[in-house]
Amino acid sequence: MTDSTLSVHSHNEPLDDSLFQQICLSKSWGPLTVSVCIDILQIQATIDVSLYGTRIGGCTINAANPTCTVGGSVGVASAKAEITLDVQAQKLTYDVELCVLRKCKKAEGTLYSWKLFEPCSTDS
């Protein structure tokens, strides 16, 4: 038996800080997928929405343009996704509707939150 090691970082240089300023995630509801990459330094999010693997739209949101609505259809399905960036509450929320064969379901909630802690109470 031989041991094999793969180098995670092949240079002796430190990792570029920009690698840590973006968080990417996706959430799916059946055939509907919302993929988001959040730049935590600029507080903006790039969004792609797909239905059955086909991209139906996308956008970039930030404090100046905090909401994006994307909709479209593929075959017997249609979907609408509204993603909102709430800088004050430090979260990204979703409101989606998915219809397949004219039967529709809605969902809403928090897609991502970067609020790490609640302030301590100063009440005595």
Helix content: under 10%
How many DSSP-defined strands?
8
**Overall pLDDT score:** 85
The share of residues in extended strands comes to: over 45%
N-to-C terminal Cα separation, in Å?
A: 65 Å
Radius of gyration: 19 Å
How many separate domains make up the residues? 1
DSSP helix count?
0
H/E order of the elements?
EEEEEEEE
Describe the strand arrangement of the main beta sheet, using strand numbers. Answer: 1-2-3-4
Task: State the assembly state of the protein chains.
Answer: single chain
Class from helix and strand fractions = mainly beta
Q: Specify the biggest β-sheet.
A: 4 strands, antiparallel
Low-confidence stretches: 1-10
Shape label: elongated
Kindly list the characteristics that best describe this protein.
0% helix; four-stranded antiparallel β-sheet; disordered N terminus; 124 residues; mainly beta
Describe the structure.
- The protein has one domain (20-112).
- Strands 1-2-3-4 form a four-stranded antiparallel sheet, with no helix packed on it. A four-stranded antiparallel sheet has the order 5-6-7-8, with no helix packed on it.
- The termini are far apart.
- Strand 3 (44-51) and strand 4 (54-61) form a beta hairpin.
- Mean pLDDT is 85; it is low at 1-10.
- It has strands at residues 22-29, 32-39, 44-51, 54-61, 67-74, 77-86, 91-100, 103-113.
- The chain is elongated and about 55 Å long.
- The protein is 0% helix and 57% strand.
- The chain is built from no helices and eight strands.
- By secondary structure, the chain is an all-beta fold.
Outline of the structure:
With 124 residues, the protein is mainly beta.
